[in-house]
Amino acid sequence: MGLTAALTKHLRAGELFAALESVTRPSAKWTGATFDVFNPSTGELLATLPDMGTDEAHAAIDAAAAAQSLWAAKPAKDRSAILRRWHDLIVEHVDDLAAILTAEMGKPLAEAKGEVLHAASYVEWYAEEAKRVYGETFPAPANDRRMLVIKQPVGVVGTITPWNFPASMVARKISPALAAGCAVVLKPAEQTPLVAGAMFVLAEKAGFPAGVVNLIYAAEGAPIGRELCSNPKVRKISFTGSTEVGRLLMRQCSDQIKKVSLELGGNAPFIVFDDADIDEAVDGAVQAKFRNAGQTCVSANRIYVQSAVHDAFAEKFVTRVRELTVGDGFSAGVAIGPMIDGHAIEKIEAHVADALAKGGEVRCGGRRIGTNGTFFEPTVLTGISHVMRVAQEETFGPIALIIRFETTEQVVAEANDTIYGLAAYFYAENLKRVWHVAEALEYGMVGINTGRMSSEAAPFGGIKQSGIGREGSRHGLEDYLEMKYLCMGNI
């Protein structure tokens, strides 16, 4: 069994559907286990895929290693052209890709379409950046030599992507690797492997040579991760996911001193100062908190509001949150889809229960919707203290906390009091305050008077235990290049 009618009913009959069916169906020769992919909104079975393991990962790495030197030797202009064709194919098939994404992940269809186009923007960006891998020359201490630096691809790259942005994470990770001249092996999240499969179908159609892009389906990430980390043919690991798994991958890579890029958990503060435009701050907070049902690493986990505007902000924010519609991502007008699975619901319920037991108040929401599904009401909690789990841990759900504060020094200290340092947001008008707070917040990304800041042109990533390296921008390409110094004597 490959794709089921529960998925294909959302797709147009055509080339992408047929190709995806061929790459997701376990072949007659497949004797291993399989795993199922379900729609979190309905529980319907979408596909049954071959459950690959260490042997298949090893074979994919061998294929990438065999293709590596030829791909690295290809002129940058040629690599750029293939990436550009891939971009065009993604845009051409945006409706089908969005439908696949909504079916397996649950996010509203319009939001899914936006994610696919965002994914395409990374492919386009790195198609252009492929031609801009610059070296440098610099003056030598004597006239008998010349000194210069060149940059070369790091080699085979192993990548592991999460379920919450299954299209954009694929593009954001492998586009710079491919642009730099690296072959890649990718393991998508087991909950959302289908859109990755569809994107790889389009990559093959775009003209990537055999072995340059390799996809592994697996129900368990640990065996694949161990193989990617321990196999000496893999020169770099790029991972997006939890901080706990990131620590494990770093340890597994340490014996080989393997390069790693890690985009890990967050605990983003969202600060509203008393000089902020409250209506704009409410808009930004709703966007930063409830995008993808709060299932994002840059979600506003703690909303701090200065005392003078606390009550006005809370009232307007609660009113807006009550208007958010929850439902199946394919239904018109839905703003928030399901949680990815039952475990996500259980974590949210545990965080809400802990907050209530310790003096918190539910201003709206706070309950699971239905008994068997994975929908949860958009929720606002007040009366929050730092002893509560919801203030210390990344909830990864539609739970907004409003915390009162008095002074700039207090809120900056509380915002920074976390092991995480991925994203932060704040709203203020006073320019002196803006500069002070932007520089004082210990985060890799800071949104100022905006609730959304991801862009292919900007470096995405965190500090502290939120990760290593950057994705997007010209800096994202550098993470897939080695710097080589050449000193030429007898000149």
UniProtKB/TrEMBL annotation:
The keyword GTP-binding does not apply. The active site is at E263. CDD domains: ALDH_F5_SSADH_GabD. Residues 33-485 form the Aldehyde dehydrogenase domain. InterPro entries: Ald_DH/histidinol_DH (IPR016161), Ald_DH_C (IPR016163), Ald_DH_CS_GLU (IPR029510), Ald_DH_N (IPR016162), Aldehyde_DH_dom (IPR015590), Aldehyde_DH_Superfamily (IPR050740), Succ_semiAld_DH (IPR010102). Keywords: Oxidoreductase. Gene3D superfamilies: Aldehyde Dehydrogenase, Chain A, domain 1, Aldehyde Dehydrogenase, Chain A, domain 2. PANTHER family: SUCCINATE-SEMIALDEHYDE DEHYDROGENASE, MITOCHONDRIAL. Belongs to the aldehyde dehydrogenase family. This is NAD-dependent succinate-semialdehyde dehydrogenase. It comes from Sinorhizobium psoraleae. The lineage of its organism: Bacteria, Pseudomonadati, Pseudomonadota, Alphaproteobacteria, Hyphomicrobiales.
